[in-house]
Amino acid sequence: MTRVLSRLLGRLLPTLLFACPNFALAQSSVATGLxxxxxxEALRYPGSLGVYxxxxxxxxxxxxxxxxAFNSASVIKLPILALAMQQVDAGTxxxxxxxxxxxxxxxGGTGVLQRFDAGLQPxxxxxxxxxxxxxxxxxxxxxxAQVGGVDRVNTWIAANGGGMKLFYTVAQxxxxxxxxxxxxxPRDAVANKKMYWLGEITPRxxxxxxERLQRCQDGTVRDAPLASQSSCDLMxxxxxxxxxxxxxxxxxxxxxxxxxxxxxxxxLANDVGILYTKSGPVIxxxxxxxxxxxxxxxxxxxxxxxxxxxxxxxxxx
Length: 317
Fold this sequence. Notes:
With 317 residues, the chain is an alpha+beta fold. The protein has one domain: DD-peptidase/beta-lactamase superfamily (Beta-lactamase, 3-Layer(aba) Sandwich), CATH 3.40.710. Helices cover 45% and strands 15% of the residues. The protein is globular.
């Protein structure tokens, strides 16, 4: 029942705020300061915005459309990473394994591995790092194959809380876009046509995965750990080295940020991560789909929201 009420509030609050500016104040016992902050930003955002925020020390959380499904873009690479590290911990995979980059395994879009000569043999650790740090698409399909395929990833997701789904490999998505007769409007594909999506996520589901990752790393695990502490350390190290999204979560912050982006410019700019505030780690999962207007300015709004979230918990500078 609590989850249902939270979902309804996340959907209705922005509309109610727009219709009645004093609504949030009148309902302060229901809508926290954090939920009002997020709802107000969702109203102003030039696109479809879904947000989930949780302070891991105080437990305060809030969201807007936190349980709605959004186009994941490359954020769906996080459960692939988590499954890979669990398999390494179980001894069924090794980070030292060498994977061969062939001409057939190269993928376009993001990443650097496509630029190297065929025959390169990076370690599995290197492949996973590239999947996160540069969101490398070649590395992503190599990792999907190594963990056991799309269905294996989705089985893992279902057993670990659900709320996310990997639809295809990168190669399958590209094949759909490049197939003869492809004429769909890109905006329609990003917003509505899941057959062209790499996957889907809800902000809350990604947030819960990030919470498990951080609690594993800092030793405050409440349920089953996501992975070994050394594996969690490695995953967070990769996320702290993220090269994309400088104008999103980290943009206006002077604190460490571990995050993973998902992009489809100029229409989609997701960013999910952990903000290491003075008062403790804060999970922030932002899905920004169907963006209108200037893409850079839409990214800046995500950065500004992250700044407001930090100020909310730590006090304004």
